[in-house]
Amino acid sequence: MRAAVGLMLSHGAGGMEPALSRPDYEQSALHHSCLLVLLRGVGPSRARVLQRAFEKVRRVNHIRVNDSSGHPRSIWIRFVHDHPVEHNDWGDFQTHRRLLGLVTIGKFDSQIELNELCRQHESLKVRYGSTLYESRAIFFGPDEQPLETIGEVLGPPAAGGRRLQDEFTTPSNFKAQAFFYREQDSCADLESRIGDFASALFWVLESRRLERSREKADKVSLLLAPFEKRDFVGLDMESRNNRKRCVGRVMKNLADLSLQAGLVDDALSLYHNANETLRSVGDSLWVGATEEGLCAASAMLLYPQMRETETLHRNSSLQEAGTSPLKNTPEKWRASDATKKISASDATANNVDSNQPQQRVTSNSSSCSSVSSLVTTATNSSASDTPTTSSSSTSTISAAPIPGHQRNGDLPGNILKAEEISNYYRKAIINYSKYRHAATIETEAALKASRICIEQNRPLDVAMFLQNILYINLSMSEAERVKRFEVITDLYQQIGYQRKAAFFQRLAALKHVQQGSQAPDWNQSYRLMLGSFTGYRLCLDPLEVIENAAGWPALQIDLVQTLITAARRLGHSALATRHMTFLLQTQWDNMSPTEQSEMAVQLQNLSAQCEGSPVPLVLENGTVIPPANLTDLPYCIDLQVKDLPAHLRPQRIKVAKADSGPFLFTPIHFNSVDRRDKKKDKNKIAFQWVQNDLSEVTVRLRNPLPFELPVTDMRLLTNGVVFESLPQTLVLQPHVPTYVALHGTPIETGQLDLQGYSTHTLGVKSNCRLKHMRGRSFPPNYVVDVIPALPRISVKTSLPQTATFSNMNSADIVVTSASLTLYNGESSSCTITITNESATLPLEHLEFSINSNVEQELQQKIFRIDEEAIKAHLPVPPQGTIEIIVDVFAEADFVCPQPPASLHSAAAPGDYGASSLTHYSSVSTSGHASLPSRVGSPHHRRNEPQNSSFRSTISGGPPSLAALTLHPGGGGGVGPSSLGSQYNQHIEAQVRFKYSGGDALTAGYCRQCAVSFNLELLPSVQITSWDVLPAEVASQFYLVLDISNLTAQEMSLNYTDTKNILIEAKESCRVPIPVDRCSLEKVVAARAAEVAENLERELCFRTQLLSFNDALSKLCSIHIAERVKIKWLLTGTDIQGIASLRGIVLSQSMVDLTAVSPLEWAISFQDTLVQPHNEIVCTVGQRSLLSIQLANQSLQPLRNLVLSIKFYQDYLNGMENYNLETRVAISGPNRIAIPLLEKQEQKEHTCSVIFFTPGRFKASIECTSNPQKQSEQPSSLLTRSCPAEAESVGQSVMFSSSYDEQQAHVWKFIPPIEVTVVEQ
Amino acid sequence: MAFCIAVIGKDNAPLYLTTSDMEQELELQYHVNAALDVVEEKCLIGKGAPESKELYLGLLYSTENHKIYGFVTNTRVKFIVVIDSSNVALRENEVRAIFRNLHLLYTDAICNPFYIPGESLTSKKFDRAVQKLMSGTA
């Protein structure tokens, strides 16, 4: 017996019998209990009506039938589309592999087509005839005529069917039952007919089962697997072991039939018995089959929900809507439910629970209700085949609980436990592995075991079974090998082993395109490779890959490269370019520089066929490939949003006014700081851009590749308002940072969102967004406000431009410059032409201001613009122009700031040959100053004779005329020894324009630009010294000026309306100018102003003495400046100007001469009124009366006046002799004190004069006010402080106090009286 | 003795991977990557009983040419060793010894105060020691 077994195995190893051609990968454990039916479409047509029929047929996968003894059976049907004939040969080994039924569906339009459909049906019957029980044909014919169709609707459907059958006839050799339907028929009865068909199959199966069960043990024949036939040739079949083998195999076959017939309990018992019998004789192959059968039967009872999985899977595959995330959720739910059921089953097995059976009964009752109608119909239809059943039997079926062993709610005792199933499968697989011909059976068993373990939520066992599949030695074709990998992939994905699934997906993909393959399927390879992305932490969105980078870069790079190869072989250039871009974007940091260069070159070559673009790529199967961008090619180091040029920068009109306020408080700064922080958080740009104006963003780029990188069509990426980007083309050198300016124009107003830039490099267009740039601290975007369009202007001037740059602030808004050279006092003008360059916007608002490096007041004198003339020209239409005239006057100080008193003090002592005017000045100064010195100086007493001789020298001729004649000749010697040379003065100024128009003006925006002015002031005329001398009449005085010509040319000087003088270059001359004296009204007004000022200053406790003098001095200065205008002209040129005397400083003595004297003189000599320049003659020894009348013309009383009369002789050589005691005698007092001279009061004094010697004498009559009584000042202050004083009294007191506080004043009778004494 | 030795971080990113045959490095990386599924599953099983958890995970899976063993530390760092299938003389005790030595080398390497956990192991000393361990002379 052992030798026989060895011989059998030896024959098996020979491999003479063909094995199953390929495994049935879709098979599951529960398919052991199904009746196998081939569902095939025949004919050329694949209309939608056939698809609907297919679905209706497939829906009938479960029926309930009553057997001959009245017990209900649960029958399942499995529909397949393809079934190799070789699988039928294994029907004895496992009966579920036997094809039992055949259903064909076809469509015909004519009799010939119908005959062809019948022929195809018959050929299929012949092919599977050895195992086929029953077959059906479903034919769809053409529709009836419209009239007949209407008639048919009224009639019964059966009649309609018959009519179609009457029209067409099947061939004579066609013996199957055919169902005819119209093309538009709803096929309402198709499902019931298929149910009848299934029932027919069941009854045939049942008869086979009963026949098998009735066989006697001693008469059974040996059942064989296809490859076992040769092994048993010549053996003694009657031996004990062979007899047991025959009985065991028959028992196993009967168990298979019982399982298919719905008798699970019987099947379990039979499997166990067969297992024991076959194991005793060492029949390993059939022992494995019994073990597999046990697992299948147990799975039927434990996991009936796996059938639902099958249904769900089919629907999912049909709809092609299944996705990995969606599949995972039901998976978890199903696993959880399975675990719960396993626990419940265990609990039920251990204890009988009364509640559990009720729940089961309820569930099964609902299931019975759902199929009750079908069962009823089936029963009615098959009445001829089964014993008669009554209606009460039908109602019993509806209410009956689970049949058989489950009536008590308990599982059979011999069922396998959940953990035992995997063990039994493992043992079965081990038994199968002993036979090479059973490799397909082994593979299918492993797959079934995997599916069971998936249901049991035991992934490690699944992994073990799947891994063992690879060890099975199968002579498979490449297509079958790929199919195996795909099935393994799917199962791995179900247990969540993404990496394993990806591994096998990659293997399947590589198998498709293996070397030596006759027809490489790159499409499948690509699809599988794409499906394996999840396992390697890849997805099609490059941004997700970058964010979730989790290592394994080498694998990712290799996978993407393989994908690129597949895409290229497919001929899909766009796809290859897209994936290569994806590779560079996601794996740039993980590649070496050499690899980076190689990939870049490859990308360049790929994109030469089809360019890459940043739009999603939709494949034919509906897959969407997201866009990939070369964000880091080139590498962006920095990106800065640039403000507009200064002269085009928008500013707020109102804000500017607010900013000009004089006070800035601290809280404003805090708010400003907070606002700044807030802006920083929002990535808000502080400045604004202007609609329709060119804007700029500066980008610093670096080329990380070792070769030149051309970048074309580089633009800004924006969001928000419409933005028109200008393309930029550049070539980046390797590893060198390059600055690029990207320009664009915002078309709308609002907020512009700058997100990055777009590039076109290496043949790929990329959107490089800031938020996707890693390793840099870029904000996600920049937000810029775009304000409405502002007009644009161009500015030109009539003066030449200058190349020098301005040192003033805000120099960046200067758009043009003008340079001008003027002599001090010269006038000129500049015409500024403003053109509105805007095409559509008028210039509606234009204001200007002038800034310079000199003081505001001086600036206003130098530059003048007529504002009204400008406003009259507004608005300026587009392309229009406006002219602005700026008048420029070279304002300067012509008066030398040297003190005149010191000048005269220095000049007077050594100058005895001066003119009479100079002499008068010396007399005035020395007369006042020499009063104290005369008393203490014996020098003057010794010089008395000289004065007398001097006075007699000038006794004849007009003194002023002589002086004027002498002056030009001695001008050079009279002036100061050295003149301070005046330097050139340089003035920088900016004429700033703020302009606006259109909507921007409404919004409160404007622009600002400036014209830079360079004004050079050359020195022209300078007054080095000045003095005030009394004139011939009392209403005038002489202003004596020393004028220097500081230019290099001859100057003609008009110092009065009628007088002219020429001054050579760098020369100076002395000029006397008669000027009217300042009127008393002005003096009164000045004093009134002084009083008002004093009232204010009382609160500040300031002294008023100096302020009054200052006021009066200013008054006289203004008086002189207003009346004296010195016009100068450079001889031979057109250059001319006016020299102003503004700023001239007058001393107190000068002020007394300038202002009109408050005293009015009336002097008579010998009863004759003395007139100016009258000849007065008297005789020696004769008494002459001298009468003097004083009148106070001022508004205030004069106090402490001293009237003095002195006679002296003037030698006209600078000497005056006052010691005339021996020549003149005065009877009566020559010094009279007047304590008080009220307003408009007159005083008269008369005395007699006797001359002892003949000669020429002069009389000096003067009135002096002395502030010697200063003790009254405190009382005056006290009086002023008294609150009880009335206003008028207070005013009067203040007048007095102010007068007392004044300095000493000397008023003289001008000119001095000249008396000629003659002999009788 | 070993084809490949890999150190995988807690986030399943490779910290160190070395092979004896450079031409097969990519293929071995694929195998190591696929083995992580089984490693994760075995780590998950031991969650319920931490006191009975063993660091050595045993044979993860085998192919025609390779056997892949796993080891996991208390800090969830995984060690993967790929051994030739034809080396039938290699016993399980020897594989355990390899992992024990590898664990010692790894702890020495991460004692470097300048090593940042989670980054690649670039220690030359560690690399040399692993090479010796791989060639069987350790």
From TrEMBL, chain B:
Main localization of the protein described in the UniProt heading: cytoplasm
Subcellular location: Cytoplasm, Perinuclear region
UniProt-listed Gene3D superfamilies: 3.30.450.70
Keyword field contains Transport: yes
A GO CC annotation given for this chain: perinuclear region of cytoplasm
Gene Ontology BP term (one): Golgi vesicle transport
Keyword Transport recorded: yes
Family annotation (SUPFAM superfamilies): SNARE-like (SSF64356)
InterPro entries (UniProt xref): Longin-like_dom_sf, Sedlin, TRAPPC2L
Keywords noted in UniProt: ER-Golgi transport, Transport
Family: Belongs to the TRAPP small subunits family. Sedlin subfamily.
Identification of the protein by name: Trafficking protein particle complex subunit 2-like protein
Species lineage: Eukaryota, Metazoa, Ecdysozoa, Arthropoda, Hexapoda
Gene: Dmel\CG9067
